[in-house]
Design brief:
This protein has 73 residues and is of the alpha+beta class. It has 3 helices and 3 strands, in the order E-H-H-E-E-H. A 3-stranded antiparallel beta sheet has the order 1-3-2. The radius of gyration is 19 Å and the shape is elongated. The chain starts with a strand and ends with a helix.
Amino acid sequence: MLTTQQVANELNVPYSTVMLWLKQGRFPGAERNDENPRGPVWLVPRSALDKVQLPKRGRPAKPKAEEKKGNAK
């Protein structure tokens, strides 16, 4: 089982993204432990990391037709 910070490091995404994905149920088998004195702790099975689809990064390319229209005067 991995902590949320370990998951963020493994997937190279921000901690806040991991927390959002946990709330969305994207990690099968993840468990929330509310009995921790420091607050709730999520534990994620390592096998769940293989099932997560990471979003593509970067800006989408502009379609060529749109670029030509913008340059034409």
